[in-house]
């Protein structure tokens, strides 16, 4: 049977299991990516594993999220991360070098390789024909130590692209169209594989945009073929020798199919609250705008900044708009400057910021209350911007963002082009710059042995976790609705994120956007009973940050019962010894309220005996389902993977 790109990638790295959708498989991992918001825990986990040196082909620690240094905490973590990268044999990218995903794509991405990263947007490297998957930090630590990645074999979702994008539409509109059609759960337990003649009009960086935001679909990852366009990209980066052609075989059949005619697309925009609440820009045109932010891994290419510069060139942005530009990396800023775009943006009123994630993770650039913020970023969950839970963040293309910055209201770039006589066409961009020595190479094994870890007072170490009890009775401390994100559980932003390497301190922020008293209430019963949380559909969507599992676990969380779970958070719960159960009855979720009591008996036998668990809610019997493999059941019962390894039980 002919196979597609995703199937070929999995088959060439399969070390255990059958490639049947729904079955657990194990994959050999070639590369890893960590960033500073998640990497500090990964480095602590490598310490706990007593790792001598990285066993992967390439592992890189980036610093791109927590760049604001309002006090000493972020700088303290950066020093720790550099020392840990040197000690364990990882490459290190210092603050200001650039956002991890496009920088990794430019420097290390290679067709045919597997990569995992402790960031949900790791699939961006699928743009080069890689199998790149976002996971929790503990799984990255295990891969760095040479262990395979265990995942559920996904379905392969073939998306055929035909035609060409019309003027004033770009790659962002392609992925927004997918989100408009399928929502944030449409890609669950699927790999999205793009194919078809429409690929010819999409550059490698265009494909990066689409692969990056496949995470918003809930997909395991996204892959593109390694074709002539990928060869051109690598050649321009001085790495043509890393190119290997990887194409879908003729006659490939996919588990699920989709078709997008690119010529029929129009400028799209995601309304505040969800990346999936997508409408045509023309339908919301005229809505006042107070902020426009261009940058992030979801629109990282030189072309994305250049088209914005072309639109605003020789004009002034609206006086009521804060026009923020976050360059993706040092080389892209250098190229934009060489081309003349930096001058155009600054002259038009842009505020030029350092290369990094910044407002994408709520580290600065919070919008004013009650104002609309248009961003070329991947997520707009409530509160993620750092501007409070009532922030109004819209997601759009650079074309729509720049047009709206000029007018001070949401503007269809096609309408602006007609009004101003703007032309659409080749931007005549320069060849990309390569800055030698930008990333710090791992030292020799002998030098690494001499490296001392630099630990300031804000670095706490991993908490000790106990085994999972056989029977227990716990109160439901929180009952929440659908689409609870990891930002809701463990908030991002400038207030909380500096504590990412200090679990006791970070736990004080857990769920505070939903219930400010949750940390105190959980702490009060932590030792006596612990507690449960009840959720709806797609519990734990969004970021891969394992803090959203380990902080509630530190506060005594034993079990989460929900209608369904987002993939990465579900795995993170198991990694730290939290039992994830699903309701089986249609109305069961509605019958469980905050303050109810959950009770379970003989859980060890129940979990090892099948996929159903019987418990009671306020004395009434309920049947729940778990989706854990035998390996994961043992891990949960042992109290999580770190404890399991420490006890020699893995």
UniProtKB/TrEMBL annotation:
Signal peptide: none annotated. Residues 11-408 form the Aconitase/3-isopropylmalate dehydratase large subunit alpha/beta/alpha domain. GO terms for molecular function: aconitate hydratase activity. Residues 516-584 form the Aconitase A/isopropylmalate dehydratase small subunit swivel domain. Its EC number is 4.2.1.3. Keywords: Iron, Iron-sulfur, Lyase, Metal-binding. This is Aconitate hydratase. It comes from Actinomycetospora rhizophila.
